[in-house]
Amino acid sequence: MERLEAYRAFLTHDLDLLIIDELHEVADDSRHKDRILSDILDARYAAKKDTLLISNQSASEFSKATSPSIISRLNEHGGIIPCEWESFREKPAL
What we know:
This protein is mainly alpha-helical. It has a single domain, classed as P-loop containing nucleotide triphosphate hydrolases (Rossmann fold). The chain contains four helices and two strands; from the N terminus they run αβαβαα. The protein has helices spanning about 1-15, 30-45, 60-65, 70-75; strands at about 15-20, 50-55. Strand 1 (about 15-20), helix 2 and strand 2 (about 50-55) form a beta-alpha-beta unit. Helix 1 packs across helix 2 (about 30-45) and helix 2 runs parallel beside helix 4. The longest helix is centred in the middle third of the chain and has 17 residues, at about 30-45. It is globular and about 50 Å long. The mean pLDDT is about 80.
């Protein structure tokens, strides 16, 4: 438990910017995942620390795959910015 609290403190207070990518890849125990993410977002907001979530899903897909409380927090403290350009991974190498 002490180690978990140290890791939580690192994620919530020690980093000026936390970037979370590939959230949809986390095992699908969504209540547990959403509770942890809500806790981290709330603590980072209280500490005035920035958080960036990146997903290759559209805004509507991300909203469906994530709890309404997460979407509410993202919209209340920032916003969802869709970036709808083609994938660079699918382009042929030069």
